[in-house]
Amino acid sequence: MSVDFGWTTNTDDHRTKTPVLKVENLAISYETRTGDVPAVRDVSFEIQRGEAHSIVGESGCGKSTVAFGIVSFLGRNGRIVSGRILFQGQDLVGCPEEELRHIRGDRIAMVYQDPMQALNPSMRLGDQMTEVLTVHRGIEQEEAEEICIQMLGRVYMPDPANVMQRYPHQISGGQQQRVVIAMALLNDPALLIMDEPTTALDVTVEAAVLDLIAELQREFDTAIMYISHNLGVVARVSTKVGVMYAGEIVERASVEDVYLQPYHPYTQGLMRCVPRLGMDKRSSYLYPIPGRVPSPTNLPPGCIFEPRCDYAREECRRKRPELRQIEPRHWARCHFAEEIAQEGWTPPEGLIPDLSALAEVDETAEPILKVEHVKTYYEAPSKKLITREKRYVKAVDDVSIQVQKGETLGVVGESGCGKSTLVKTIIGMEKPTDGELEFIGLDISKPASKRDIAIIQELQMVFQNPDSTLNPSFTVGTQIGRPLRRFKTVPSDQVHDEVIRLLDMMKLGERYYDRLPRQLSGGEKQRVGIARAIAGRPELVLCDEPVSALDVSVQAAVLNLLMEIQQELGTTMIFIAHDLSVVRFFCDHIAVMYLGQIAEIGPAEAIYAPPYHPYTEALLSAVPIPDPSVEQKHVRLSGTVPSALDPPSGCRFHTRCPRRGEMLPDGGKICEEEVPPWRDNGDGHRILCHIPLEELRRLEPVVTTSGG
Prior knowledge:
- The protein is 31% helix and 21% strand.
- The chain has 708 residues and is α/β, with parallel strands linked by helices.
- The protein has 4 domains: 19-107 and 191-344, P-loop containing nucleotide triphosphate hydrolases (Rossmann fold), CATH 3.40.50.300; 119-186, no CATH class; 366-591, P-loop containing nucleotide triphosphate hydrolases (Rossmann fold, 3-Layer(aba) Sandwich); 610-704, no CATH class.
- The protein has an 8-stranded mixed sheet, with helices on both faces.
- Helix 5 (141-154) packs across helix 7.
- It is globular and about 70 Å long.
């Protein structure tokens, strides 16, 4: 049965001249007990059909508030104070609720950051999807089901008919997001609003979703409003960009103009915070924006960015700048935009620390950590009710690594590859099934509860979510001071002074001593978590995604902080992250994990240039790069990561490998039957693959610039 979706790419004169969305001087406030709080002020932009307009900025800048204002989801205390929202020429401000409901369901669709916000956990996916068509289009149930199955196929959902019968918890996060996107597109919306739709996804799933967005934009000619704090994602999907700060648009232009010639100091600051794939910590430095986004209840009298701006002058302190046109189709809200762009930026004196102590790691010394053939299995329930057969999830399966004193080992890979299980096994939160773990010459195969306190002191961890590790009832000073007392790092009468010293090292200061966790921002909580981890002056710190949930400026500050700690204390680190740009910048050696095993390991610079494992190549191809002039090879993995309960035979990557068919005889049949050998590329760089190194060296680099 072939279904006519009713999709059209009609571009008559009226639709060509009239923007799909035009926001004019929008102001949004929230009513509180102390008065109205101005969350958004004087925001203007427009989106034509077939355009993708991104809104980018730090948390708290008002990006999502603008989106919720467009669809009138501001809550009981939120209201549009002034301005207009023109959708296909119709003003939505003051529009009757029943009419708004029809427009939202039929012509405007929204995709949220968390797909579970849009999916009902108690309903089958098929019932939720067909409801969109039966309610808004009056389509019969059987025809609606067929349309939904075809749309799931369009978003590359495997076995869409079967997915229709499942509940949301029975599919992966990436598949949940694809279902939400498919639902949003069922009625062929004129405007698609996407609020951080890829933040929680693996880099490979994120790449597939971004490819899908670009394809849908081309095929359906849909106008897209994309909200993100990830500059790399914005560079990949956008036609135009609006940079928001503290409720205002401070710069607006095409994506090329904003990235290659930013005029506003805030935009320039965001660009300096992001590590690029070729950067490393010994030859470059990240420049975080000082301070934080001001509260909407306490805005500066002049330019709202003035307290954080390196170029601020007296005029900036007393006069608020207007958003003005600097060049054709390029606007900036800055008094001295042209002058700033012409002069360029130089780091203030004393900003760049001397990181020469990071320069050398003694590779000939005895490793501080040895992990030999470690396995961590979890027993899984059997499918049969009565059986003696035991089944195991092979989370970590025969992993061997060595870490030298003073270096940082990065571990990367998709969700479920075993990264976190590996560090939890090292820290003692999980018991290894087999293998040997040796730290500073001592056996650490026992769980943490049975380890000597001296080992616990020397081995600490920084977690991804500081809220899950900080006690909300105790002050910052108490929580940092606890390990100092527990490990007797300093005499008891010096604990308070040592906590202050650690707070100063974290760039927080004494005023944070008596604060509770709820009084801190996300970045400040993470700094407290780091301070607590290093309070006992450990030899090895394990960092499990410590910057993945942070804004780019806070991320840059935390990375710089970790480098300074490494220099001052000589700390060794294992650093887990899914952002390969961050890993390349921060780590000395990198291990790429796939389905419980290491697929490639070596010096950071070797991992990012041919030869590399086909899995590493795909990961690099998926990284969103914040530079529209960079060319990136399009290598995508088919399917999902197989189950660690029953991993594929031979090479575990063979079910998704894009290279074995073209680079091995017989279509790479050997990959299905035999475990691949280690290929030694020298200098500690090894690749677990059947493809010979000579063939892998012939691969073109994944990332190239216009200059080659």
